Amino acid sequence: MPSAEIRMKVLKVLDRGGQRVLVAFGWLLLWATRSGAASRCVDQPCSPPLGNLASGRELLTLSSCCVNNNSHQRLCSYPPHLCPDNTHPPSFMTDDPFLHPDTWWASGEDDVKQDEIRLNLETTFYLSHIVLVFRSPRPASMVIERSADFGKTWEALRIYAHNCRVEFDLDDDLNQPGSLCTSRYSNPRPCSGGEVILRTLDPSSARTFDPYSPEALVRLTVTNLRIRLLKAQTCPVSINYSAERTNPTDSLKSTPSVPYAIYTLQARGTCLCHGHAEYCIPYKDNEDKRQKSDMVFPKCQCVHHTEGDHCERCAPLYNDRPWRPANGSSGEPNPCSKCECHGHADSCHLSLRAWISSGGTSGGVCDNCKHNTEGRRCQRCRHGYHRRMLVPLRSPHACTRCWCDPRGALPPLPGEVGPWCHPKSGQCHCKSGVGGVSCSHCLSGFWGFGEDGCKPCVCPHSCDQTTGHCLKSFPNNYVVNVPIGGKIPDVDQMFTAEKEVSWSKELEVSASHNTGKCRCKEKSLRSITDLCRTKHDYVIKASVLSAHDKGSHAEVRVKVRKVFRSGQVRLHLGIISVYPLSWTSRGCTCPILNPGVKYLLAGSEEPGTGRLLVTLQSVVVPWTPRLSLLFSVGLMNGCL
Ligand SMILES: [Ca+2]
């Protein structure tokens, strides 16, 4: 057959094979042909274009050449220096059929009845179809096998036999559709240029089949291919065959002296990327792509925030949801999702617990929060640091070290690194009578700033902070500047709503101040009978003086005005402490105890310590003249 004719024949076969496969692999080609946009992967699954997996790779064959040379390998690639006479090496099967249409591989001499072609891939690839163009008559029986585990196990993809029943005891798929064996490609005619085509996917199922699904992986992936040429056949001598009649010299030329000769082997496929890549790339960046321009490289150039040779995992900072392959059926790209770490972490990991508890929306946990942050999303300042409120959380300078005056601040607890302050406000933990964000001065009503804090003024009103001498009148900023732990003077008339607003900033974490974090349900007291029904350990009338945030708990100082009932610990008029429990669990105090207000307080004692607790079951109602009257009645009835 003249070279031009062979060229036409090869092109025709490849073209035909391609068309058939276009149907079967519509999914791959669909993504591959949606070109024009910057990337085919935007908001959709994508796959690198198909290429010949055998191109640029060594094909091994079982051959008499190797046997004669006592090679240790069972299969060899006909190294030209070992086989100087060999003019038809296996590489001639994978050269460009358009540039070199008249090159072919020839198997060993006649005495070798069987041969094998092996393609070992360096990693897992998708295989879409195989096209073989024979120069010799096609084999009377042949098996194409694949391995997906680097040659440990093999599976027959297709069995070809002139007679399936005789050769393999299998049905012929021409009679029994779906059978593994077919006689479709085993006719010795045409004597040259006969094709064998294998599709890994049945065209009928290709339309609905998701190529990235787990079952697709099982069916379409390959690490090794082998083509076992089991039985050769010769070209039948027939003067009636039209092609030979028109060109009698053809039959002579097309029947080579060797059992098997192949012009072209195309193993069409692409790198395995789970729908998350548009290109296959070499393992090493510096590998010369131009020299191997027709090679299908093993690694994926991942998109959709995935990474790995096969885009099989999420990129370090994109583990907020589990990795998933794209869905070729629905068109969902299923990209990996970024963790919100506020710019303070380089990676995150998926916590299944967080993922499940979020109802499947977010499960990322930031790793190694930087810039003195902590928390699942690096959203808090770590121990010993606090937020700089004017700096955005995303800034590397969002958290700054607590600065606390060592004289006025309490020393850190054993085992703790100090100084410690409130992570939001920066408020340090002050000694008694000391105030200010960094515990740097005495509170109003206290004096003598030093190692032991500040001493209370022994005066009816207030005193000079340095000398302790009594002052005759209140300074102007008397109430406004009362911070955490501040003492509220025992004067109800000084308390106004306007001043409460001024406090709210200072007393952000005050135990006695509702910061808005808690919504306290106001309890009303309808009658004394209500009070009598519940057995409270203590019932007192008291005015709130001050609140102290003790970190783990809160202590509220009150002045007892009247004792209606007391429990184990006898109560007297004067200053005592009550302990709101909800501070520990909720960070605010319910019911609210506003400094400067008189209350009816009824509640329980803490067993053992005798501390007066204020809980959600306690009665806390502002004292009113009406309440006073109710109490007189209650006392008369003997309930209290
Ligand atoms: Ca060739």
From TrEMBL:
GO cellular component labels: extracellular region; laminin complex
Task: Give the location in the cell.
Answer: Secreted
Highest rank taxon of the organism:
Eukaryota
Chief location of this protein within or outside the cell? secreted
User: Locate the NTR domain: which residues?
Assistant: 518-639
PROSITE patterns linked: EGF_LAM_1, EGF_LAM_2, LAMININ_NTER, NTR
The protein's UniProt keywords, in alphabetical order, are:
Disulfide bond, Glycoprotein, Laminin EGF-like domain, Repeat, Secreted, Signal
Q: Which PANTHER family match?
A: LAMININ SUBUNIT ALPHA-3-RELATED, NETRIN/LAMININ-RELATED
Quote the protein name from its UniProt record.
Answer: Netrin-1
List the source organism: Cyprinodon variegatus
Taxon lineage: Eukaryota, Metazoa, Chordata, Craniata, Vertebrata
